[in-house]
User: What shape does this take?
Amino acid sequence: MSHRQSLLKVKKQIEAEAEQGIWRGGFSIDEEEEMNNNNAAQEETKHTIMDSSGAKTLLFFGCRWEDHDFLFQKELKHFVANKTLTALHTAFSRPQNPTEKRYVQHDMQTNGKELVHMILNNNTSVYLCGDGNAMGKDVQDCLATLI
Assistant: This one.
């Protein structure tokens, strides 16, 4: 997320420079040549940054206990606040109230339409981290069912 935040900052800088123009330090360049050079440089930089840097990012975070397993909680909420992360969905399997027990795949199902659209139409990557025995298979099964 820190890397994505940096990429988005660079993208915003490029867009701002394109709107304001860039001072050339006292020498003049043919206006048409300047526009062509700026446009080519901006396009090259945008592709280098990532074509999808403005795309949505969803994070489905699951753990047992919210009060002591929710790693990087402060940082993740900051990424949502500054729009580096579009949405943070949390699931806790050992809440204080047993009727509120949730797993990542519950939130994936709730957001299934958007998630499937992103995977099928936006070349979205899905990364999974956690218990590969049970949770990984359950999430994979959920994705297969949604798609």
User: Anything to note?
Assistant: The first strand starts at residue 58 and ends at 63. Residues 44-52 have pLDDT under 50 and may be disordered. The helical segments are 2-20, 31-49, 66-69, 73-81, 104-110, 112-121, 135-146. The radius of gyration is 21 Å.
